Amino acid sequence: DPQTRQLIWTVISGFRKAEDMTVFLTTHYMEEAETLCDRVGFMCDGVLEETDAPRSMIEMLGRYTVDEVCPGGMKNHYFHRKEEAIQFLSDCPQETSLRSTTLEDVFLEKVGRQLERR
User: Fold this and answer.
1) What is the pTM of this model?
2) Is 13 left (phi over 0), alpha (psi -120 to 50) or beta?
3) Is 26 left (phi over 0), alpha (psi -120 to 50) or beta?
4) Which of 4, 70, 77, 83 has the maximum number of C-beta atoms within 10 A of its C-beta?
């Protein structure tokens, strides 16, 4: 429930300020991991696939995402520079939108594609 989730966020945020303390948080909510965690790890079939700081993972993929509406569904394009994303938007004949890349995008690109191949 939202009230308990907010309480847990507050408690974990307080722990983060303490020195010499490690908190392990298991969650399926990427927003939660991006907000609360200094480092995250993605698992697939019990194997740790990726570990890094959320911001670093996002930077590696690209800070800007262009979502393109294609006949077969949505396609995501990632860019490190906003100017590159805007140029893609200008050149693309399909319906598109620009947004900031999230940790959820990183998960889907790194681990989600492995799950789709099964």
Assistant:
1) 0.82
2) alpha
3) beta
4) 77
Q: Which residues lie below 8 Å from residue 85, measured CB to CB, with a gap of 6+?
A: 64, 65, 66, 77, 79, 98
Strand partners, 99: 65
Distance CA(109)–CA(57), nearest Å, equals 11
Record the tokens describing residue 40, joined without a space: 């995250």
Token pair recorded at residue 89: 């938007």
Q: Which residue has the tokens 């670093």?
A: 56
> What are the tokens at 84?
């590159």
The band of 18, judged by pLDDT with boundaries at 50, 70 and 90, is confident
Nearest-angstrom CA–CA distance, 75 and 69: 6
3-state secondary structure of 109: helix
Asked if residue 113 has pLDDT above 90, the reply is no
| d(C-alpha 62, C-alpha 112), whole Å | 17
Length of the chain, please?
118
Query: Which residues have CB under 8 Å from 74's CB, separation 6+?
Result: 67, 68
Question: SS3 for 73?
Answer: strand
